[in-house]
């Protein structure tokens, strides 16, 4: 063989690359560089393990949620969904309910201040007409109602100052106290729930920096309400005030968060909200809010409950559909408020809107297998409305000459909802309807026991257990 025909044989290192452990060390690496490289590798391993652990936890949470009871609260804004949710917590998770008592104390106090503001605004509209030029003050005018109103407003100014501070905490973007609302998931409960804990010597200790302290003496309304208790009671019991409210069609008693009849009890330094106070307290929420709690008693103790409140205003309803998937039950709240209109559109009757919404829910194919449970909520308001002589026929002409009493009115509208349920449901399912008053804790507890059993049976049926 000639030299040019000789084949060069590649030379390989003596070490076998398939059996030699790779260290990742580059050639000519210094000791300092090796230490840096090892630290980076250790950090990468730690992060990788954390990611794996996080993924495993997320996977377990998803599997756990699949096995949980999932309930969707639907209905218009102001239909009582929040009250029903609080009744659920009180009935099945009382410890969770108790933990939030201090939070709801502040909301009750804000509701009371809002009612005072509403009264003073009505008096202002009555006595101070912007289009009429104000005359030069005289001795008699200084004793008149307009001057007296200004004196009253000045007396309540410390309360309104505290109200403004609390609103800045809860909803910084809101400038008008009458439009107070909190965004779901904003952590507003954590803000109000943060209080300085009492140390052994009675002084307040706080783990958070002073600048982050949310509730303190400057924005706690307890002492100011206590000091002005007599003035608040006098304002509410004044016959002239009642006449003006009646003249302007303002019925505070029918509104959520009404506590003016409880001032003597609430405006005290020792006040702690009762269960009923918490159920009745009102703060408007915007957005979808999911509430998770463990059932603490009963045959299904330690089981998970997920109750989702998707909001009820017309602008929020477009976001409902993603939450229809995999729910065991829908609690649909429809107050029989035949004489009221929607807050966001005064041209739309509340009851007609509820019927339209119910028809759409019944016909939705995504909800074909879900339990639909209808609550005719705010039964107490219906009783008061009919007792005041308000005619159903005036607002619902199709009601005709049927008797204007609670049994006939309830039966009439129940049949309307039943017909939509039968005609629009993709498949046959039982029609479940209850007349409720969410502020009646005892009755609601009994009712929710039955609702939970119904959800549990459906849950077991879906799992082929029964």
Spell out the blueprint of helices and strands.
Blueprint (H helix, E strand, L loop, with lengths): L30 H36 L2 E7 L5 H12 L1 H6 L1 H27 L17 H26 L10 E3 L4 H6 L3 E2 L5 E2 L16 H6 L1 H9 L1 H9 L15 H4 L8 H6 L3 E3 L2 E6 L9 E6 L19 E5 L16 H14 L7 E6 L2 H9 L4 H4 L10 H19 L7 E4 L5 H22 L4
Overview features:
two-stranded parallel sheet, 16 helices, globular, alpha/beta, 2 domains, 10 strands, Rossmann fold
Provide the helix percentage.
40-55%
Let me know the CATH homologous superfamily of the largest domain: P-loop containing nucleotide triphosphate hydrolases
Largest sheet strand order = 6-7-1-8-9-10
Mean pLDDT: 80
Oligomer: single chain
CATH topology of the largest domain: Rossmann fold
Q: Strand share of the residues?
A: 5-15%
The chain-level structural class is alpha/beta
What Rg, in angstroms, do the CA atoms define?
31 Å
Question: What is the CATH architecture assignment of the largest domain?
Answer: 3-Layer(aba) Sandwich
Shape: globular
> What is the total number of structural domains?
2
GO biological process, one term: adenylate cyclase-modulating G protein-coupled receptor signaling pathway
Pfam family, one: G-alpha
GO molecular function: G protein-coupled receptor binding; G-protein beta/gamma-subunit complex binding; GTP binding; GTPase activity; metal ion binding
InterPro entries: Gprotein_alpha_su, GproteinA_insert, P-loop_NTPase
């Amino acid at each position: 063989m000639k030299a040019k025909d000789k084949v060069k044989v590649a030379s390989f290192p003596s070490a076998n690359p398939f059996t030699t452990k790779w260290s990742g060390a580059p050639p000519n690496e210094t000791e300092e560089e090796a230490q840096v490289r090892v630290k980076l590798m250790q950090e990468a391993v730690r992060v990788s393990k954390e990611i794996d652990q996080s993924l495993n936890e997320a996977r377990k949470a998803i599997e756990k949620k699949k096995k949980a009871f999932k309930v969707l609260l639907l209905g218009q804004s102001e239909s009582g969904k929040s009250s029903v949710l609080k009744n659920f917590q009180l009935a099945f998770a009382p410890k969770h309910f108790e933990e939030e008592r201090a939070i709801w104390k502040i909301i009750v106090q804000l509701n009371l201040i809002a009612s005072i503001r509403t009264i003073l605004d009505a008096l202002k509209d009555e006595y101070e007409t912007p289009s009429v030029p104000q005359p030069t003050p005289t001795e008699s005018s200084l004793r008149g109602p307009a001057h007296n109103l200004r004196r009253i407003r000045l007396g309540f100014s410390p309360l309104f100052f505290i109200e403004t501070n609390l609103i800045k905490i809860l909803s910084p973007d809101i400038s008008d106290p009458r439009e107070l609302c909190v965004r779901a998931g904003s952590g507003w409960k954590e803000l109000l729930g943060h209080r300085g804990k009492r140390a052994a010597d009675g002084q307040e200790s706080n783990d958070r920096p002073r600048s982050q302290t949310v509730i303190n003496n400057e924005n706690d309304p307890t002492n100011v309400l206590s000091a002005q208790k007599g003035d608040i009671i006098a304002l509410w019991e004044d016959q002239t005030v009642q006449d003006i409210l009646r003249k302007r069609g303002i019925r505070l008693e029918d509104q959520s968060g009404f506590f003016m009849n409880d001032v003597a009890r609430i405006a005290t330094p020792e006040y702690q909200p009762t269960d009923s106070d918490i159920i009745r307290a009102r703060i408007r929420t915007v957005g979808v809010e999911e509430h998770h709690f463990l059932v603490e008693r009963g045959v299904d103790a330690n089981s998970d409950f997920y109750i989702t409140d998707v909001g009820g205003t017309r602008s929020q309803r477009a976001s409902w559909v993603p939450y229809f998937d995999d729910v065991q039950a829908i609690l649909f709240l429809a107050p029989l408020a035949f004489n009221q209109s929607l807050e966001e559109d005064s041209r739309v009757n509340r009851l007609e809107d509820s019927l339209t919404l119910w028809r759409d829910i019944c016909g939705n194919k995504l909800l074909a297998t879900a339990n639909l449970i209808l609550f005719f909520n705010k039964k107490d308001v219906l009783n008061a409305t009919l007792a005041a002589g308000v005619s159903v026929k005036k607002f619902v002409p199709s009601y005709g000459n049927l008797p204007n009493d609670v049994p006939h009115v309830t039966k009439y509208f129940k049949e309307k909802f039943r017909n939509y349920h039968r005609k629009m449901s993709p498949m046959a399912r039982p029609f479940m309807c209850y007349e409720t008053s969410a502020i009646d804790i005892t009755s609601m507890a009994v009712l929710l026991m039955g609702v939970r059993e119904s959800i549990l049976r459906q849950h077991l049926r879906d799992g082929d257990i029964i």
